[in-house]
Amino acid sequence: MNAIRPEKIEATETETVDSNLAAVTEVEAGIRDFVRNDIAYLRRPAATTDAPPLDPSAEATVTNVNSLIQRVAGTSLAEIENLISELESLRDLLHAEGQRVQREISGYAQLSQAAMKSTRMIADNVAQWKRAADGLRNS
Questions:
Q1: How far apart are CA 22 and CA 138, in angstroms?
Q2: Most buried one in 14, 61, 129, 139, CB count within 10 A?
Q3: Tell me: the pLDDT tens digits for 6-21?
Q4: Is 55 within a domain?
Q5: Is-contact 80 86, C-beta < 8 A?
Q6: In a domain? residue 69
Q7: Residue 23: pLDDT band by 50, 70, 90 thresholds?
Q8: 119-137 burial by CB neighbour count: b if 16+ within 10 A, else e?
C-alpha cells in the first residue's frame, strides 16, 4: 500500500500557494503597467509647456471622449433650456389666466351687487304699492 506522506502534501500545497501568488503578482504588475502607460496621460494637467505631446492615438481617444461628453451634455443642456422656456411660457399663461379670472370674478361681484340693489328697489316699490292698495281698500 502506498501511503501519502504529510511532507509531500505540505510541499504540494506550498507549490500551489506559490503559483497562485505568482499569478496574482503578475496580474498586479500588468495592471500597474496598463495604468502607467495607457491611462496615466488622463491624469496629467492639460496644456503644460513641459509636458510631452500626446501620441496621435491617445490624442484621438481624448478628443473622442471630449466629443462624446459634449454631445451628451449638449443634448441634456438643450433639453433643460427647452424645458425652462416651456415652463416660463406656462408661467406667463397661468399669470395671464389668473388676472383674467380675477377680472371675471370682479365683474360678477359688481353684477351681483347691482342685482341685489335692483331687487331691493323692486321689493321696496312693491311694498309701497301694497300699502297704497291696502290704504285705498280700507278707505
A1: 131
A2: 61
A3: 555 555 667 777 777 7
A4: yes
A5: no
A6: yes
A7: confident
A8: eeeeeeeeeeeeeeeeeee
Count of domains observed in the chain:
1
* Residue 88 placed within a domain: yes
Instruction: Render pLDDT for 47-96 as a digit per residue (tens, 0 to 9).
Output: 555 555 556 777 777 777 777 777 777 778 888 889 999 999 999 999 99
C-alpha cell belonging to residue 56: 496621435
What's the number of CA atoms in the CB half-sphere (13 Å) around residue 136?
Answer: 6
Instruction: Evaluate whether residue 119 is within a structural domain.
Output: yes
Distance CA 66, CA 53 (A): 17
Q: Give residue 78's domain range.
A: 9-132
C-alpha cell at 111: 353684477
Reduce the secondary structure of 13-78 to three states and give it as a string: HHHHHHHHHHHHHHHHHHHHHHHHHHHHHHCCCCCCCCCCCCCHHHHHHHHHHHHHHHHHHHHHHH
